[in-house]
Amino acid sequence: MGIFPKDIKTMDDLFVHTLRDIYYAEKQILKALPEMIEKATDPQLKQAFQMHLGETKNHVTRCEQVFKMHGVEAKGIDCPAIDGIIEEAQDIAGEVEDKEVLNAALAAAAQAVEHYEISRYGTLIAWAKQLGRNDCASVLQKNLDEEKAADRKLTELAEERLNLRAAS
Amino acid sequence: MGIFPKDIKTMDDLFVHTLRDIYYAEKQILKALPEMIEKATDPQLKQAFQMHLGETKNHVTRCEQVFKMHGVEAKGIDCPAIDGIIEEAQDIAGEVEDKEVLNAALAAAAQAVEHYEISRYGTLIAWAKQLGRNDCASVLQKNLDEEKAADRKLTELAEERLNLRAAS
After folding, report:
1. What are the C-alpha distances in Å from B16 to residues A106, B10, B91, B102, B111?
2. CA–CA dist B22, B25 (Å, integer)
3. Residue B93 to residue B139: CA distance in whole angstroms
4. What is the pLDDT of residues A13-64, one digit of tens each?
5. Looking at beta carbons, which residues of chain B come within 8 Å of A126?
6. Which residues of B touch A84 (CB under 8 A)?
7. Confidence class of residue B1 from pLDDT cuts 50, 70 and 90?
8. Confidence band, pLDDT 50/70/90 cuts, at residue A1
């Protein structure tokens, strides 16, 4: 339950709530990525994570832009989903001994993060459009496009490189 | 950290670990869905959730089949990711007053669940193939296909029906 039960009364409230959820999530990802970069030993995976760290900083800025466009305060709210997904990524990273197996595990954990964000941005874009905020939708679309591209890049790296090495 | 740190040594260990993660997740979803069915007031959303409850039962059975094919014990392991995603779904459901807005929120929460599963099954299938277990991969593919179809169905319902009503 939220601190203020039943505080979401309209679709607009729901949109703002979910925007605050992904804003919190992006900031948590920003904190978690440096550890993943450090743990990754495959140079291409490390580079993909580093690139995504830069993108994530832009995602935070774009969320702030949407808050401003929509005339509401930019603030995050607790998001147990991303906390759980990141906790799981850290758990698995702590349990894998072999470096190649760890690279495969890290890529998979990052894809779970990407998929959470893909789901959230997809929803937010549909809601923004429904609320007549095509301006907000198009800013959020940029974040969604980059999350999808990051996910595809990880699939490619995993299938062409990381899984092969992890299994050998 | 796991109870037994560094207990994942090979790609095979990682595959089994992640299979146990999604097995636990499917069982948690099985427990969470009846509440979502009860809370949904849109008949088509209720029906989609009910259909997915049936599918989820099959997913559990298919995971057990894969454990058996792979010669390991069918057991779940704690999955903080799905716990967080479900907790967030329950939080949001408790915070929304309006029924139409609640339907839109429930569909979105279910899509976050679907996306977690899509990510996990995608990874498991790639790993199974890498390990030469195409037999396991093709069973897991059935689960993935149904998760993707469920996600598409929810997008369709949200965009054609739920969001429209929630915003009016």
Report:
1. 16, 10, 31, 37, 25
2. 5
3. 33
4. 999 999 999 999 999 999 999 999 999 999 999 999 999 999 999 999 999 9
5. 155, 158-159, 163
6. 79-85, 87
7. very low
8. very low
Angle at A90 between CA B134 and CA A30, to 5 degrees: 110
Residues composing chain B: 168
Measured distance CA(B109)–CA(B103) in Å, rounded: 10
**Residue A2: per-residue pLDDT:** 46
Residue A98: CA count within 13 A, CB half-sphere? 17
Please state the φ and ψ torsions of residue A96, each to the nearest 5 degrees. -100, 130
Give the type of residue at A159: E
**Which pair of structure tokens corresponds to residue A8?**
């979401």
* Contacting residues of A for B82, CB less than 8 Å apart: 84
Closest CA to B126 of A45, A51, A156, A110: A156
> B52-89 pLDDT, tens per residue?
999 999 999 999 999 999 999 999 999 999 999 999 99
* Partner-chain residue, chosen from B81, B95, B131, that has the shortest CB–CB distance to A112: B81
Are B163 and A14 an interchain contact pair (Cβ–Cβ within 8 Å)?
A: no
Residues A38, A106: Cα–Cα separation, whole Å = 11
Residue range A88-109: mean pLDDT, rounded: 95
Q: Which long-range contacts (CB under 8 A, 24 or more apart) does B38-41 make?
A: B39/B93, B39/B102, B39/B106, B40/B102, B40/B103, B40/B106, B41/B99, B41/B102, B41/B103
Q: Are B109 and B132 in contact (CB under 8 A)?
A: no
User: What was the ipTM of the complex prediction?
Assistant: 0.94
| Residue carrying the six token digits 């929630």 | B166
Contacts of residue A134, defined as CB under 8 A and 6 or more positions apart, other chains included, come to A128
Provide the phi-psi class of B116: left if phi over 0, else alpha when psi is between -120 and 50, else beta.
Answer: alpha
